[in-house]
Amino acid sequence: MTEKDDGFVPGPFEGDIYYANYLRVHKSFGEFILDFGVVTPENPKTPEPLVRIIANPYFFQQVCEAFQAAKRDYEEKYQPIKQPPGKDAGGKGINPAKED
Fold this sequence. Notes:
Elements: E1 22-27, E2 32-37, E3 51-55, H1 57-77, E4 94-96
Parallel strand pairs: 1-4
Antiparallel strand pairs: 1-2, 2-3
């Protein structure tokens, strides 16, 4: 096991690991549903989710704050994250679902 740049050393992990470059977010009063998938040149349409995570609003807020902090730390240490050429802010990677 090697130490990462941020000093975090990941421990053993028994679960499945998936790569994702697509996220669709569904919401209702009591929960957020996050469907992660992969878009490839061979599969440019909306993919079937590989992983679905269901979270209550409080936990979802904490996750969003953690993502923002991680993004800020990454950009301070490395470089600003830019959208690929030709992609709008949403791109094909994030697809907020219609109101449930």
